[in-house]
Each structure stands twice: as C-alpha cells, then as structure tokens.
Specification:
Elements lengths: L14 H6 L10 E8 L5 E2 L7 E3 L1 H13 L4 E7 L16 H12 L4 E6 L13 E4 L2 E4 L1 H18 L3 E4 L6 H11 L8 E6 L6 H7 L18 H15 L3 E5 L5 H10 L4 E5 L1 H12 L5 H15 L3 E4 L2 H10 L1
Helix pairs in contact: 2-3, 3-4, 4-5, 7-8
Length: 329
Amino acid sequence: MSSTFDRPRRLRRTPALRALTREISLSPGNLIYPMFVHEGADDQTISTMPGVLRYSLAGAVKRVGEAREKGVRSIVLFGVPDHKDAQGSQAYAEQGIVQVAIRAIRAAYADITIIADTCLCEYTDHGHCGPLCEVGGELTVDNDAALELLAQTAVSQVRAGADVVAPSAMMDGQVAAIRAALDAAGFSHVPVMSYAVKYASGYYGPFREAAGSTPSFGDRASYQMDPAGGYREALREARLDAEQGADYLMVKPGLPYLDVIRVIRDAFDLPLVAYNVSGEYAMVKAAVAAGMLDERRTVLETMIAFRRAGADAIMTYHALDVAGWLAEG
C-alpha cells in the first residue's frame, strides 16, 4: 500500500502525542458546582438526582470544603425555604435560607466564589418566577412587579456576601433592574451572570423536585424561550441582556443547545456559561446504573463538548467528580 496519503493516526498513537495536539482544555477552574440549601438540620437525598443532596447549613459548608479541596472554587446556591408565599418573600429576606448560607460559607472560606441564583420560583407558593396578575382572564407572571422583587433579592444576596448574582427568571428587563439596584446600593463592582438564553425545557424535571419549584398551574412557556424559536430569538435575548449590563451570558440547558452556545460565542465577547442541567445529569446516572454507559468517559466527553462549543465555564452537578477524574489524569 502506498505511504504517500495522509496519516492522521500518527498523531494519535500514544497518550502523549494526543495531548500534544489537543485544542480543548478542561480544568476544575472551568466548573461551577450547583448546591441546594434548605432549613432543616440534616442533609436530604433527592430521588431523581443520585449523589445530589439538599444540604443543611452545616452540610453545605462541609461540601464546599470538599469542592475547594478538589480545586472547584465556584458554587451557585439555590434555596429551598420552609415558608412560601405569593410574593416569594423569602427570596429577598435578610434571614432567607440563601442569605444565611452565603454568610456561613463566606465565614468558612474567603476564597470561594459564591454565585447566588436570583429567582423567585423556589420561594412562591405557586411555583412561578414572580407575583401573579390576570391578563385576558388568565393568571400569568406580572413582569414589572417581578423586576422590583428580583432587584431586592439581588441586593440582599450581595449584602450577605455573594460575589455574583445570576438572574434566572427570564423577566424582560431583569438585568437592567438588578444592575441599577446593585449600583444604587454601592455594589457596582458585583457582576451579573445572566441566564440570558434559557429555554422552556423538559430537562428541568429533577431540579423542580430538588428545589420544590414545580408550577402549581400551567408552565413557564410564556416567559422561558421556545425550543423551536431559532437563532434569532437566542441572539436577541443575549443582546438585550448584554446591553442592559450583563457581565456573563448563559445558555440553559447545555447539551440540546450546543449549536446555540456556538452561535452566542461567535456573536458576543462576554464570558459564556453552559448549564449542564438536572435532566442531563439524571439521564447519565440512570444509564450508568443500568450498565449502559461508562460514567467517567461519558461525563468528560460532555464537558469537552461544552468547551468545544465555546463555553468558558460549565455549571454542572458532575463538578466534583470531574475535578477528581482530572486529578487522576
């Protein structure tokens, strides 16, 4: 056989040769670890998310320490309060569960980047992302009333010690409202990580059990994005948030929207986050439990896919496992 044709396999023959020509890198510094905190004294398992817990305050501090030891220095906190009401008042209460957890984690670890999810759905008794109003005889979220509460929530989270606020409610104008409130409160140095491109996805089911945020009626399709909306809708949402002062953009979910991540990466020079959501995590765990997939290979391949698509950071429940695997080589 002729030896004149190209032989790409020459560059893949050994691990060292493969490493020499890799374009994509992955490190614990690229990872953000999502954590649920609740008001109980004990950590609680979540049936739909094996290995993920609702943490007590003590459990959350301990888990952050474990993440830190593995090199994962960024976390995002979601609160699961005991009390819920129509306004979601525990989201912006000075002694709300997330605010208390931020203080406890900050007191223990000064070098952890604490990102606070800024939304109301975990805190409202109806499970929607803001107070309700009636439009055309139907209940829906009152967008502008939600903006005021989201802004209060962001300020209270930063006052407690959050380094970054991450609005996820998909209310029109939420980044501008939060940016103005932070600046007015003397927090102009605090960045906003916007869930700019967030779809009304079927991949959120396990999260809603974990956070207790399933809507009591209807769904969130009127404010989260249409999966069939296309690139123009995604670009418009990202552009609006960038113009309003977002410091990071996010695409959520991650795997079904790798193409969208690439489009946003090419259009904007802001740091870009991919959220590897609860449904993606649960599917891998179920397939691994059934003996269908190798967990380490599958998860690392997924993380590389996010990076290859253009994500600077990955929010993932696999974060601590990934960091451990990377340390093993």
